[in-house]
Amino acid sequence: MTGTFPNVSISTERLVLRPFEDSDVDALAEMMNDESVVAWTSVPHPYTRADARTWVTEAAPAERTAGRGIVFAVTEFLTQRLVGTVHLRNADWRVRSAEMGYVVAPWARGEGYASEAVLATAQWLFHDQKFERLELRTAADNTASQQVAQKIGCISEGVLRGAWIARAKDDGGAWTDVRTDLIVWSLLPEDLEGVADRLTDGDGYPSYDDWN
What we know:
By secondary structure, this protein is an alpha+beta fold. It is built from six helices and eight strands; from the N terminus they run ββαααβββαβαββα. The chain has helices at 25-32, 35-40, 49-65, 113-128, 143-151, 195-203, and strands spanning 10-11, 15-18, 70-76, 82-92, 97-104, 133-139, 155-169, 175-187. Strand 5 (97-104), helix 4 and strand 6 (133-139) form a beta-alpha-beta unit. Helix 1 crosses helix 3 (49-65). The longest helix is centred in the first third of the chain and has 17 residues, at 49-65.
């Protein structure tokens, strides 16, 4: 059983999540070369403009058309600047579950944008697409990503031992592969009850229940 996500944009008070466009290539390449992104993801390094263009024009659209998931470019509503990306992948249309990954540009960190984008995507996935489970996997030492999972109400389900290859700089400044554990988080529709209100009250983030 295979489905396809619609080609949509999701709006919050501060953000627009939309398909990638050609104009995003330069900002995407810059974001993916950030040291934190290199450390915790499997993207090529260095991440070239050609890599970015291939992702924008071929790989990202294919995720949706093949039924595997959907990729959103996360942009600021006021400036249209690229904040980051949210990627729903490994969609299981029978179980109605998917896995989510996310990246935030260095300049946009600390503003609650990751939580806002991830929560909006989860609400859309559950309410609009009738999915029943969302899974996140964070490297054991990636505390920033773990905080996002906790803020939106995810439940930690356990550890996959030695299941990921992160990257770290050696004494000479060169990147080297490091095997690490993954923490598995899950989110079900009922876990979202009250999350938007808590974020608004506790962190000053807006509520994100508006999409198109």
